[in-house]
Structure prediction request, 186 residues.
Amino acid sequence: MALRLTPLMGTTAYQDRMGDEHPDLVTSGRIVQGYQVSGPLDAVAVTEVDRNLADPQWRALFHTGFREDRRFQRGLFDLTHAMHIGGKLVPGPAALLRLLEPQRATQHCTVAVVQALAKPRLTLDEAYIFEYGLALLKTAAAQVYTIRLAHAHRLVPVTDSTTHYALFKRTLERDGIDLPNEYLHR
Prediction:
């Protein structure tokens, strides 16, 4: 599930693209996608997202995945072209180098921090903090909704992303959540 945070801090979900790679599983009903999860994060979701953002292991998995997993990276940022960061047009490779700075893996981040930075005029440094924080938040929020939907509809979450699988597994283990899930090898 791909999520985008609106300026008002609601979430807008885009249809999962895993089905594009496995149309036979969509046709057979083994991949279910397209659930509506748009709207603001509720208080429980904020708490659950913040728990992931405060977890050093989860953050290390995220940063390693962002650094080493090109597919995970592309799902968060289109770095093949220049991108707008804090009102400046920055070449994709230069933006990537700044986003991969090691301190980002441990820099304090919460939903409230990202909300506070969701404004039109940021310094370049603030804009990089916002972009990285937004990527963290989108990933953690997608997990929250995945867990909720899986429980509500008795689904087994499946991903073909090694990084998403590692992050999901960490969340389930840390929070003691018993939820069968699978990794689909590409």
About this structure: Residues 1-16 have pLDDT under 50 and may be disordered. The beta strands are 2-5, 10-14, 39-40, 83-85, 88-90, 158-159, 182-183. The longest strand covers residues 10-14.
